[in-house]
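Researcher: We're teaching a course module on how sequence relates to structure. For the next exercise, students receive a sequence and then see the predicted structure as tokens, so they can try to spot secondary structure elements on their own. Here is the exercise chain.
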Amino acid sequence: MDNHANFVLGTPFQRSAFLTIVGGVLLFMVFRYMTLPPAPRPMAGGAPPQVGGPRPVDGYSRPQTPRDQVIDKLPKGAPQKTDSKEVAKVEQAKKDSAYDDAIRAGKAALEAAKYKEAMQSFAQAARIKPGDGEAARLIKEVKDEETKKKASPFDGRWTPPTRLRPAFTITQRNTTISGTYYPADGSRSRPFHEGKLLQEDELLIAVTNEHEWCYSIKFKLLESGDAEVFMWISPDDAQHILRTAANLGKTPQDKRLALLLARTEVENFKDPVSVGMFRRTILK
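Model: And here is the predicted structure for the students to work with:
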């Protein structure tokens, strides 16, 4: 009997070894169960998670993208490559924003007549976008405004806004004012000298036409930078015109016609008459 029991149950040493092995297996299974990761949560609507698993983002789930699958296969701490197109798009957006800020700051400075600050801002915009037409145009505008500020307010070429003639070019050097008159009828230009400033915003000059008739011209500057131009014939010049008119014709009939035209001209300009608004162009 003892021999049969020992054959079936084994010796005490064998039974102890068997129990030790069984206990170790049970402990391993319990430890393994406790260390397993939790099962993935189902997605909204109770749908089971997709193969590959949804990636939780801020408490929500979204389908895994091919990029996510590649990243998941990388070892922990491995650097992730960013799409070059996305990087270029972000960099372009930053560049556009910096360009817009520079243009906006430059325009504000130009409006406030802060030419140095305006030039710096527009130059920065030109560096951000080399060859940009808008930045180049604004830089030229700043230079033109600086030139106007340094020059006499009357220096330049004056013409009506919608016509090329009559026109005046005026140059002031210290107290000397001179220039050229271009008649409306297209006849040859005639120089003038000894212009005189009546006030800071008023200039008086005298011009002659092809008959050597003399006219007084006054420029009155306006806040816009344009000038209203007045023309008249002084009493002394009127007498000169009437004396010379009779000598313009070769026949008695021509002389009578010339005298009639002279009297009409003197009558029309015996008082100052506005001949319109003139706009200045700075001459380089």
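Model: If you want an answer key for the exercise: The first strand starts at residue 55 and ends at 57. The CA atoms of residues 45 and 225 lie 73 Å apart.
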